[in-house]
Specification:
14 strands; mainly alpha; globular; 44 helices; six-stranded parallel beta sheet
Length: 948
Amino acid sequence: MNPRYEFGILGPLEAVRDGVRVPIRAGQHRVLLAALLVDAGRIVSVDALAFRLWGDDPPQGARNAVQNYVLRLRRTLGPGIVVTDRRGYVLKVPPEGVDARRFDALVRQGATASSAGDPDSAAELLGEALALWRGEPLADLPAERFQDVVPALCERHLAAQELWIDAVMRCGRPADVLPELRRLTGRHPFRERFWAQQMLALYQCGRQGEALERYREVTRLLADELGIDPGDELRTLHRRILASAPELTATRRGSPAGEGHLPAETTSFVGRDMELAETRRLLRASRLVTLTGVGGVGKTRMALRAAGQMRPHFPDGVWLADLAALTDSTLVARAVAEALGLRDQSVRSAMDALADHVRDRHLLLVLDNCEHLVDAVARLVQRLLCAAPSLRVLATSRERLGVPGEHVLLVSGLTLRPGGDGGACEAVRLLSDRAAACAAPLRDGGSAAELCRRLDGIPLAIELAAVRLTSLTVEEILERLEDRFRLLSVPQSPATDRYRRTLRGVMDLSYNLCTPGERRLWPRLSVFAGSFDLRAAEAVCAGDGIARADVLDLITGLIHKSVVVVDGDGRSARYRLLETIRQYGLDRLRRDGDAAGYRIRHSDHYHSLAAGAAADWCSPREVEWLDRLRTEVPNFRAALGFCVNRPDRVRTGADIAADLTRTRSWFFSGTLGEARHWLESLAAGLGPGVREETIMVTVMKAFIASIQGDQAAAETFMNECRDLGAQAPPVAYVEGVQMLLAHGDPACIERLAQARERLRDAGHIGDAHMATMFWAMAAAFLGHQSTAVSACETYVAEADASGAEWARTWAQWATGLTALLHGDPATALTPLCDALLRQRAMNDRWGPAWGVETLAWTASVLGNHHHAARLLGAAHRQRQVTGAALTGLRPFHLHHTRTETRVRERLDPAAYTEAWQHGARAADGIALALAVANDLRLQTAADQSTPG
């Protein structure tokens, strides 16, 4: 079955495959995807893609870089989506797969319905189109790359808003558009059409004086700001309002819907615009839609709101059957018949009577809270859909019904990111609204956002937290969330609904709906932090009543019951539990006395994973390992946190921390400070009898401190290393690194060369490769030309032979450094840029800081000091990510100081400061560095071609 793709450009760039968000982290990959989406279905030339990526100054080798980016984008998205053509590339996605295309189609349909005299359908279609917008188009990408796209999209958005407002007013609901018109006239004060619509809506609401005041306001605004008078539309409308023209009066339209009953809302409804639009779309396209999701996530409220919005399309009404209180599955048909007002006194079965009742009716049936009666509800729904061709069913359930033709929509928590207009996210808006209702207004938006995040955006949990705000602050609630199930309850509440009084009650119901195997697996899965894959679940959770072969089926069952969520990045499925569900599982695991045992199994699994990565380091799977280890950071943290507090697990934790350091996972993720924290904490717990682990941990402590530029700590750790085992190859390796970085001692060249050979002889291929890298670096900084060139050639050959992409990037950097210091500086530009491009494609957070810095040195040597100042500023910003202290890295600091001094001598202070700040403020320092390098290449080529 082909995957279903959905892409979004009406807001930050978004990619979704089969309902799961696909993360695209690298900035240039996002720009590339956006460029293809703008012309989805059409061939985009390589030159056009290069222009989107780099503007008018593409780097040398841009076509190869585009090809590399396309290759990595294909790996992320999956096969068959980005297709190569001899003229370029094309994104193969149907029109409905891109939100901008869906938006245009819905606007056209809405305009057609409006012209045909059907304002109800027009308002709904246009409202659905507007709900697709998540903020400023492509707001997370460089604005200058899409100057031709974003304004056009924004103009279409405004035109659609005008059409929607007209349609809603023609439906006789002028009051509904006034809040939006107040916002639109504020944000677009010179768009006269919005002022005219606001005046008309105010007049139709009986507020003639305010309508005339709006005219006076816009007249003053246009005169003061633009020096013009209002246009014909505003002037004509003003005269008609003064004359109380009868044709301006709102048409009061009766609802076309027939019978039915939906309960009135008693509290405000917050957010869910996208989900509501998708629900309405599904109800038009299919006959059975099931809203699934964890208990308390708001399925019922959303179903009722969507059903109310769809009421005009069902002449025979919208009917609600709430099955929450029903416990006997044999009474499902009777309960639904009662909800429909059917009083059948015949000897027929309730299901037969229901089928006859709905057979010729065009109605929407809402079946709420079906999870505890799934089989019985499924049988009834299938029978009714077969009997009544015009029937639509909207169900809510924590588990899908499994009826043929069912469309499932997973309802997640409220959004946790601010909206496109800069306002609060949906979750915080709900918390603020409910807190105000409890007379406990919010004061700290940051803490409120953190509370909502910790509660997974689950509306029930947020509403219960709002009640607690009458007696606790947000910060106090955050401190007590470890006991959230006791905290988020409402003692002495007059409510009788057992599903809404406590968070624990909701979780208990979900737990009781699971099969025995699923009830065993849920608590065991709670030992995972963040996400996990199937292999991890099998390794940690199988046994004691769960066969390894059954784990996948049990996880699938938990997914269907909205307990487990599926994530994916294009290569393998990953699973996770919302934090509230995870805490519930941990509570049960502790209650059963199994928590420690499964935490041990969890730490053992991640111990094996880190060891496997270290053993396979510097291989063709290097980048794959780095991606995987970065994904598993939350689980590594959980394993390390468990081990550091248990004397019998400290050795395991020490191995994990050391192996992650050996694989450079901490470097790749930009978390060196965390690496040092774990190494130092675990080292303190290692006792006698574990000499090998103690040596490795101490060596890694010294290595990290040296790389950070903390040479006082590095010296202390090195002394500890020497006391533990001066002859161990890892000690000699790190001692060489420290001699290089702390002292700039040329003796480190021979020290690292020896360590490299000894590590290789010991079978530590990855460690030997790292020693080779530092040997080549030391030879370039401190050695003679012949030594530097020989070491560099050896390093490049080893990196190429290994097939390790990360190693190759540093080999290219070493090539550039060697050319700068021992050859023709102009030839350093190409390998340095190649290293930057590759590191960027890998989303490396460590390497680019040093690549940009070395380009600054090169620019200065080549005589372009303005460019050098910009690059020094960009490198400074990049180093802020790494946290490294340049002053503690002697060779780097020496060349940095020389470059800075030379540049300051050639530029006046104001010019230097301006150029440096330009680089430091650049949103994309790597792109700036590549553009500067391209300028330097062109300049050098021109100089070489000039006679004399």
